[in-house]
Records
---
Amino acid sequence: MKKVFMEIDNRSIRLGDELKKEIKPGSKVKVAAATFSMFAFQQLKEELETIDELKFIFTNPTFVTDETRVGYREYTIPKKEREQSIFGGRYELKLMNELTQKAIARECAEWIREKARFKSINIETDEMPNGMRIETGDDIIAVDRLKNFDRKELGYDSSLFKTTRNIYHAPLSLSYLDEFDSFWQNDEYFRDVTEEFLETLNLAHKEHSPEFLYYVLLFNLFSEFLEDINDDYTPNEHVGYKNTKLWNILYDFQQDAVKSIISKLEKYNGCILADSVGLGKTYTALAVMTYYAYRGKRILVLCPKKLENNWNMYRHDYVNNPIYDRHLIYDVLYHTDLSLDKGTSNGIDLALNKWENYDLVVIDESHNFRNGGSSESYQSGGRENRYSRLMNRIIKSGVPTKVLMLSATPVNNRFNDLKNQIALAYEGDVEQIDEKLDTQSSINDIFRNAQLAYNKWADLPAEERTTDKLLSTLDFDFFKVLDSVTIARSRKHIREFYDRKAIGDFPERLKPRNFEPDLTVSDLDVTYKKLYQLIDRLQLTIYQPSLHIYPSKREKYEMALAGNKANLTQLGRESGMKKLMMINLLKRLESSVAAFRYTLIDVVKSYVDETLEAISKYEQTGLDALSGVPVLNEDDFDIEDSNLDVFIGKKNRIALKDMDYSSWKLELEKDQAILLELEERINQITPAEDKKLQTLYRLIDEKMTHLIDEKMTHPINEGNKKLIIFSAFATTTNYLYKHISQYVLDKYGLHTAQISGTKGFETTLKTNHRDLNSLLTYFSPQSKDRNLLFPDDQREIDVLIATDVISEGQNLQDADMMVNYDIHWNPVRIIQRFGRVDRIGSKNKFIQLVNFWPNIELDEYIDLNSRVESRMKISVLTSTADDNVLSSEEIEDNNYRKKQLERLRNEVVDLEEMSEGISIMDLGLEDYRIDLLKYLESHPELEKVPKGLQAILSVENKEAEGAIFVLKNKDELRGKNQKNQLHPYYILYVNSAGDLVVSPEESKKILDLLGSLCRGKTQPLQSLVNQYNHQTKDGKEMSGYSKLLQQAIEQLKEQDQLSTMDALFNFGTVNLMNSSIEGMDDFELICFFALLKGGSYDTVS
């Protein structure tokens, strides 16, 4: 006689085994449970295929919109889990990792269409009974408790705790699920969800396009980011910033950056925008400012004085301001203004200005603040540098201040430079940022460890010193910091992530042309080398009178300066000035004969002569006529030097009676003799003798010599005669304009303009509009919208001679050739100059960079500069008897400069490629997040996608065949070796031999590879899908791929152990508590890509 009931403990007796006995052909099965797993179906497949029907009720809302409980967020996540559990619960990972779910899902779906129907309750309740009822011809069998229909409840996956349920036969079984049929008929509370169920199941077995699966991968990687998106941090769409002229002329990638920057400013109070040159950072920043202006915030822009026009021009309702907005109100001040206590700058009274009331500060060229604040002892002595002033007066005081920094080079070989900039965002309060970043280590430790890793890497032999090697040694936390507070997109990224048709492309860069003219046309025995040797003998103590003050009188002068609250001591200021003047002489000699002659004779020599005359008069009459205060004009210095604090503050006159003027006089007389010799030599070089100037003529006019493809008669782009000539100095541009403008007008009928300093504007074009923006509009009419400014004036300027006041923030892409008449000491500036024409959307097919170099070996040139810096430094330190000449950092900087200048002779490089070792572009994941958000807008189904999906990718050769597995570590602490940027996710690319092709630590590299293989492939690749299905018997025979997965995880495990050991012995961060990967069971498969060699891209129709 059959037992009326049986106790099931899923240990000695498994529920699944008993059900196999009880389910008979023709049975009607009714189940009420929270979830249904296709792996449970697979376990009972033989029996279930013989039944007459299955009716399944989900006991909690599943596959329904829960209309009755809208807004109850706590239910949404469990509901999502319930729906996902069709594809296996957490206990069924082992089966998921066997990779056969595609075949199982297909079989399950076919069976459901034929035999099963699903309904779901549509309210949350704890009262709905669960269980199972099997009605056969002669009996009714019931299972009294069945919370989930999955392998665990069937007894095939072990359970931590012993649980019991019972199987009942009639008559005891009759009372179980006796209300099932009335529930089934109740349309008010129970809804048919069979189609929704099948639709979800279909996702697991249909063929997916590579692109879709790529975004499934991104959706999983950035699920936390998606959950973090909340109204506190995202831009408020009710603020009308998108209805502005500016927003509507931004490219997609600029709009995406604006939204990201606002989110970062809201969350972290700061952000560094370091997009590549030519990607329009100025407009991006202005759009961010517009958002905050529309919210009534007070905004300050801080920029180098020479770049003020870039910002001032957008403030006013002028005809040539295409983005004017009456709400966009902001102040513009200069970096050097931070060191002033009074005076007027750009129309603002510095003494009355309420510095503490700025809500947003935008810092252009923020790398100028990379050295951080003054020491506490300096500050307590009343001496603050500009960084400390910015931090104390603006950021820490008054209203909370957000800081947007624009920088071409935020990361160089000193990571502390970057930390100092980021510190502006968190007011220097480490706890404030640590809390927001959610990193394992404090930000100070993160940067310290990064620097240690970099220094170790820098000591490696050149062939081992690869970017990949460096990236693999940096901590996960370092990436997290950069990813949180920086936005840096390279041209390569823009090409990959955005539609080229919409934004246009970059022009092709031709190989740079280099000229190395001698100083003179005839052999006058005046060479760079000889002049450098003479300069090298100069003492220039004319700028250091304090060295000669009697010791007993020194205090008097230091006391006088103390009330000035300056950052520098008197001697410190003078030493800085002396070094600056010496370096300026070298730079100006390299720039032009005219620039050198002016500084040498009209500035330095005349000051020495005047001082010696005053000393002589004092000796004869006792009258002290010493001016003692050198006159420095900012326009005589390049853009970097003119931004120094040497120009700021009161200069104290020293009385001759307080100093040992006779020994000073001897030094000055020695310098006077050298200056006289230099003057005699330089005066021999007339414009006709100036070989450099003559070479420039030849560049313009081929007929003088066949040195270069002639610009005017053989342009590199048809009909384009536009040319920009850059120099660091206004004296040089004046000289060039004087000698070239009339020549170009007489010979070719073309007009020239000169732009130098803030007021040096000239042109041969007869016009009353001689302001900077009008001249640039005549020169680059397309990019500057001439039709807005001068609709009735079609005249143009074709040659533009300019200083670095336009080396940033200007779009002059109508031109296709740029000449560096002098090679700037800072290689970054050369790339920024070229960025005026090397821009996205240019109408020119080709662009040409032309460089003029001094005719001297580059090594010799750089070494000479270094020696001068060293000698200047020694003279600064003589009073302290310190012989430490150039620091290792300065030597490193000189070596770096040498390498980059050498590169620029042969190729035009992007800034991100300049830095040896690391570029901020290598680190961020922001592009992927933005890309995902845009895809999600049109593909909301990503949220429902099951784990374990697959797509087939085409690779070019047999060696690249294999698989890319995307895994998630179940235990987020396990395997967190601080190197994988995507932890707890791992992307493992394994070839068909079972070897990892790319180290899992190079996650960004694999993401880029996947992106390039998948983007744009919006349909499955039919011929490869057929090949794959044939190989795997439609997904049933997956042992080959399952073995590859096993091998990949084994290698990951080995790497993880090595990383832990490496960290132990190299002072890295190690969590010894249960941190290493043990094997397959640590992971769940998110999705995978099979890589097959394929010729064509036939797609599934």
---
Amino acid sequence: MVNYRKVGVIHTSASGKSFVWKVVDRNKPDKFYAMKFFAGVNDDFQKLVFKRELEALQMLRSCEGIVKIHDNNASIRIGDERNYGTILMDYIPGDTLDKIDWSRYSLLKKYEICLKILKAVKGAHANDVIHRDLKPSNIIYDEIKDEITIIDFGFSKIKTIIEKETTMPRYSENYSAPEVILGYDITEASDIYSLGAIFYEIFFLKPATSENKMVADIQESSNRESFKNILIGMLATNSDERVNNVVDVISVFSELIGELNVNRWEYNIFVGVNCLELLKRKYVIPKDMTMALFTNSYLKKQFSECYGYFDSFKKTYFITGLEIVAECTFNTETKVIDIIKINEIAVDRRNINIKRGFKIEGKIDFIDSRFKYSTRVGKDNAKLLVMFVNKQSEKDQYKVREEKFDKLFGEWEKGLNESVESEKEKVGKITYENYKLDNGYLIIDVSECINKSIDEIQPNTKYIIEGKDNRNQPIYLEVGTFEEAVCEDDAAKVIIKLPNKFLKANVKALLKKKIIISEDFRANIKAYRRQFSAINALKADDCSAKNLKDIILNIEEPESTPNIVGLHYSTKDLNDSQKLAVMKSLHSENISLIQGPPGTGKTKVIKEIIFQIIKKSKDRAEIPRILIVSQSHTAVDNILEGLPEMIDDSMQVVRIGQDKDISSAIASKYTIEAHRNNVFEKIEEKAKKYCEEQELIYSQIESKDEKDKWERIKAIQKDWIKRIGERDCLDYQVVRSASVIAGTCIGFLSNEHIKEMEFDYVIIDEAAKATTPELLVSIIRAKKIILVGDQNQLPAFSDERISPTIAKLTKNPQFRLFDVLFESLPETHKQVLTTQYRMISNIGNLISHVFYGDTIETGIDDNLRQHGLSRYKGKSIVWFNTSGNARRYQKKVKGGSFINEEEKRIIQIILQDLNTSGELEGKDIGIITGYSAQKDLIKKAIKARQFDDIANININTLDAFQGRENDIIIYSTVRTNNSIGFQKEKERVNVAFSRARKLLIICGDMDFFYTYDDPNNKFIEIIDYINEHEQCQVISCKGEKIF
């Protein structure tokens, strides 16, 4: 118990082997828990008791009035004894009911305490848990907080679990129902009998005894008839005659409380003749009604049930009755209440007033204001004022809470509305003159890119074309998925991968007509609506995680509970910050965050978290449900690649998404299609084997009837195999039985069977790359949330033409949920990974210094990151500076992109130099630029020189490079005048430069980038670093010759 220290003993069993300790969190000396020990859980009976309490408390985790479980372990050692089952629970202050002197409490208070007990039992029954051992010592009442808590579920019955051991007779004398004592069937009525015996003790101040004696005492008492009848009904010997639904008991106790509350407090309110006359003029009351009748009869009936609220604008108090509403003033010094206006109220307005107010409990006397000075103020008028003040305070807190919510999420809602309205008109469109088909690809000669430049087309963008149906209504046909853009000279091509390598005839006909193709907006609109729903769910507190809304709004701190025992990691390779990240994530009761700068091993940490969850679940024989999502399919697949070491049965993992977006190794193993085929093949194989065996048997039988019977069996089996192969039935079972479900942030909902699922954990990788509403889609579905990402790398992509608001929000950390939580969460719930293993220390130090405040250290030996290139010996960052080169300038091309011919030429020279020295062969090189046209220009040049046949050269735009890395990175800056473009966004530069393991080469106009005047320009710090460190070099490229 490395995380807890014993501070006292709460309870010890008669044998002394089972006990409950009061313990304290070693890191939080004011945080106490109860730790319950079950001796010898290797014994079948003790094991059953431990298991049953554990199962019941897990099922009742979200129920009010039930003790909350935090952790458990089945093999704790205490002294020389092993195999103690242990459950860590909330420590509940107060006394058990058997220790309370009930003569101290009023009748009303007893009713209220009993109602709290009833509501807690109702919650248990609603979750199919029957306590079966309710007695005073199993219920705690905290008088200070006025709360009850039910404990000790070791002998409970869970209706969804069938075990013969649960019928084992176990009872508490005088509290257990007759059927429990006799070992008969247990139902909810069994708990109701126990409650009846407990209530008998509370109200009659006698120990519970036989049911006949208790019933006799109840019948002879002078209690209210409704109370006597319900208590007798609870104590009926025969369970069929007993009250069998706790809701019925709640109803009676609620009425009893209401009756007592009417007489509990007394108020008086003064009303003038003007109010009487006003209602007469409006024909609300008869003209002949007198003031005495008005005050003593009419108003009393109208306000027999009433609700109050304070109008902070008018500074008046409103009391709403059955059909009228009174506007009042309240003298806070004299406590005199005066009605200044009284009116009829419509039903809908009354309902609004009820929702915004509180129910006024007590008796109201209405006094003619002409007798104000001869009448004493109502004895409880001051209490009524306190009720108004308390309600207003609640409203003020609610208002602050909602204002915070609207500040953070209101703008996102505005942006989503913009997106829905403009999606169709403002998505990227392409006009063209010619196209051709080439081996499953559609190659389009671009005439014009409308709404967005060719550089802004995102990977995996889907394209559609609009046609007309037979009613001349628009229909949208799929064209395919964006593969790449190619810019050649002054021409641009877009290459689209066709679905199933085939172009449908109706699509081909529309292409021949030169109909514009556009990005597929339909899925986006559906995604926006899911994001709307997620925001609304959070606003309504309709989330699986406890207090999630208030945690996000920084109104409440998240909770953290350490495990009973320390973690045993699956690998010794984890560094201290990685171990802390795993530990904090698992200890969090609701939400935690991990920032993973480049190369710090965040995927490794995610896999370790999954390992720990699954390991703990195996130890407890539980089946966890984990949702893994990310913005990119690649990131999801990278996580899943390591799961076979943790999960033996591949059926426990389901990958949601289309096969074309998923790596072939993952698709063949984890997709629903793969599971379906696997299951179906096994069934068919077994069925075939069974048929072959039976055919041999029936071939020896001569009876025609028997052979006909066998033919009918074969037909039934064939039909059964056909039906189990039906998608919906099988898919549902596959999804619902899985432990791990993985997909993209929005895409995982594409499976119908997942939409209503709740998860124990959601792990979101690349969380900083998702918009706030995108994160909420998965966040609201899990009890525990783990966000992994880096706010200093690429943010969420947003299209300013679709939504200017969202484009602005994605660039503002105050509205990005990952950034918001990084600032607000306590240290117990967030961890920065502080050791990088990707880059040689010089490159790592550059990234740490410029983007992370010198907080990231290098954990890999520089000897393992030597590039071995003679030209750059001892150097790991080299800038080829074109500042003095007359041919250095950028050029804008068709489609809106930029190229830089001189930088292309220099990159060719760099590669040729390596080739000449014999050092190019087999090298791992990435060439990055921010512009599609420059990418294509360089790609074409590399292809012409056949450098890509000699080395492994990957050429792409910056946005496509996050998550990748190469030994050598060559970065082309392109821009030379007016603006450095997107390169003033520090996140993009961070991603570009942190891809290099051994050598970072930058090619561009150093002076232009150093002097560009923008507060966000990180190149100033980068160039300063290069000029100050020996392992960096600047090579001037003024003329033709460079080396």
---
Amino acid sequence: MYCWGEGTSGQLGLDLQENDSLVLQPAEVHPLLRHVSLVACGEQHTLFLNEEGKVLSSGRNSKGQLGRQSIPDQKTPARVQGLTGVVSVACGQEHSLALCQSGQVYSWGRGSEGQLGTGAFEAKVTKPRKIQALLTTQIPVIQVACGNFHSLALSKGGAVFSWGQNSLGQLGLGKGTPSQPVPTQVLSLSGVPVSQIAAGGAHSFALSLSGAVYCWGANNAGQLGINRVDEKGRFSPCAVTAVKSLGVSCISCGEAHTAALTKDGSVYTFGDGRFGQLGHNSTANELKPRKVEHINDRASEVACGRYHTLVHVLSSGLLLSFGSGSKGQLGNGDTANQLQPVTVQQTWSSQLPENGEKESPDYQTTKLFAGWNTSFIHTAPPECSESLRQISKIDGHVLQKWLTVPACGTDWKEAKSEITLVFSSSSCLVASFLRNSTDSPPSNVSDPYIVDLQAVRSTLRQLEKKTWISKQIASGLREKLIPNLLSASGLMKLLDIFLILPECEAFHADENIIHLVLPLATAILNLKDSSMETLKKWWSFLEPKFRKKHIHMFKRAVAFILKSGLFEVFKPKMRDVLCILKHFYKANKKATHSVPLSEFYIDEIALHLFLDQDLLNWRLWAKLEDTDETPIIFCRFPFVLNLQVKTNLFYVDACLIKQLHRWETFEAIVKYQMTQGASEIPPKPIFQLRVTRPNLVRDTFRQLNLANDEDLRKELSVEFVGDLEQTAVNKKDFFLHIFDQLIAPDSGMFWYNESNSLMWFPSNPTLAQKRYFLFGILCGLAMYNNNIVHLPFPLAFFKKLVGVKPTLEDLEELDSVLGRSLKCILESDEEDFEVLDLTFTVSWDKKDVHLDPQENEKAVNNANKKQFVSAFVDYVFNKSVAKLFEEFKRGFYKVCNVDILEFFQPEELMGVIVGKEDYDWEKLKQNTLYEGEYHANHANIRLFWEVFDELSTEEKKSFLLFVTGCDRVPILGMNCIKMRISILPHFTEEHFPESLTCHSLLLLPKYSTKERLRTKLIGAINHKRGFWKE
């Protein structure tokens, strides 16, 4: 080892005379220091750690910084008593730290700013004292670093601690935090897999295993590298974004400048440049990292003194220096400042190899150490070189060790401790699953997550097969990680832990929901707004299989609380979970590859929730924000409601409104009677339509046009003029036939596609707009009164009703040829467009349309093809039908509450209004009830089902229409159809079967033969189809 620079007080460990106190070129150290492996430099004192784990010190001792009592300045190195098994040392301006193999930290010297961490502000401590506060975590410390008046420590669990002066934010504990005499965790670095800590005069750095760099503290000269100056300092860690892609491997700090060494051997410097310590041939400050250009080969080491910098070049073995040389600290034989790298005089050339080839048997590792005005270089075989100890993490070796260790003995206990440690720490877990640098991050994310989620899943699945490991994992998560996350999440800079935790099966076990999942939801909601936005972006870019895992975890928590009857006890926590699911729902909608929206449905809500009360609360609290005092209202989270619940809510809402009208009528009648007719005549509680069969559409539209909004939301009653009896059958009869007339191609209301299978609004209507408004009311009445009607609209229609934008896939459904053609255009390249010769003028509904009014003959090319397709889709579904659709929508929402309908997905709303054709005839048979003397094994019933099974599909649909009044299946499936079969008394086998559609009742006479039953049944369903009275 060699040293040079100022030795006035003996800080070089050389017994120099006062008139010869500057060493201008490297000199071999004192014989006592020949087996030293690590050096730490203060202002005028130095610590030397030898290979035996003992510490020696020399230099000034005014504050006890040498660790010896009643001894003035010491020019000859002497041992610091009471320290053994030391693995690292660090020096501040006048204080010292020693880190032992056990993970304990000792301090001594000046403590007036709390930099000793002993709990007191002491001017002078001459003997090493154990820092007790670091022992309370029971996790060993693995690194220490010192600034002038502050100290840092990194634990094996990845926690960064700071103590001492905080006048410029160098502790990273936030504004308003005074100097700290005890170590305090830097919570904002929770979850960061820190690989190195470094401290300058009053600034601090943390380097992550991922290469990310975090900084805090003094920034008066740009020493934080964040492209700005902060005269008052920065009190919380922030990322140095300029080095994110550089692959930083080491950070070193001077008084007010910083140097970063990258994996490719480049050196970047920033901060104070007054003395040339940045190496840019200038004395200017640099506010962001700038590469030192005059280093011609790959650097292997960098060290910053107060105002100078040292760099070791690997291949040539050269040692370079630049910056202040006033005390000889540059080692070039001069005291002049150097603005760019110069070569240190290599007085050791006979002892060091001239190349850095690791294969060489003479290969030596080189370590550089720099103090205020001192410099040291140390070489040793690789096996003797002390490297920074790292935080705990899972790698291939550790994984195999845990999976194969016998479940007893010392090795097993050690493995249990290791597992608990890793799963107690966000930082350790993130460190365990870092994505390889060659892996692609999620596209279109400005700040992508750094963990490999497939590796997370694979590793955890292996570990969780072992019961004892699963228990250790759950213990670490429950007792340490989650409580720490709750206290730190509001400050956290790295969020990857929130992607890892849902992959742990412990979060999916009912017994852990209260202590793991609920506080995790709270911790997420405690994130700062900017962090929350980042996390939501990550969620949207997750692969569906990972996003689904997160969703299921939070769904399970809600279901568990509902099933356990703990709804009121955990109301605030339940709200947190629902809010997280809401964020996931929105993220999923933005995702390129989304999970089905049904994945959000929580079926237990239907079993454990009073829907009418939830609906009333939703109405009552509609204009108020959620607080801890407001009830949890699931209607505010409709995405978790399954189709059955949403459908029930719609009809409960309709029934409540109808009931309200009945009550108003009852009150009015009572008032009318009490006033003996002096008050207004009570309104009817129903909305009655009186129609004639020959003029069904005309009569209906005339009365709908005259009806007020309140009437439309009353119970609907339909009277066919001339009918002797008014029953509920009339409504089904009415809706069936009026829609048959209105949607018929010859009605002129709608445009039909080429196959006549789907209809759309015409772009050139021949009928008045008012007709579409009334048609909208009619559709609203059908849904409001629980009647399925046949509306052969494409899905785009229902999308528009609930505010979802139609897409090219919707156009392909409406017009398959056009849709496929537009898809081909999107897949075409530049050469294809020369052949296609397309323009933005297209033909739709027998009319030429200019999709770009500003440029009628604008050519379609590779650059604007997406614009062309989007404009075409927009024209078909929006612009061409804007007035007609708005009229329809206005009428529809006069009857149905838009706020509840928006609960539905387009596919669901389509199913509720028009039903579906997913027939399960076996289910119909299973659900059938028998009355009177009929039962499942009755001879006539057996004959009936034999005949039914032999019917064609169309005949079965006609039978369904005959019995229920509708030939389509309710959206909730055939289970909703409960057919009853009863005998017709006093009827002979000459009679046809009859039905009461309002009760789904089939009145079936007894028949002697199967053929007679078939004849009569088919005759009945054909004759009575549509319920017309012939």
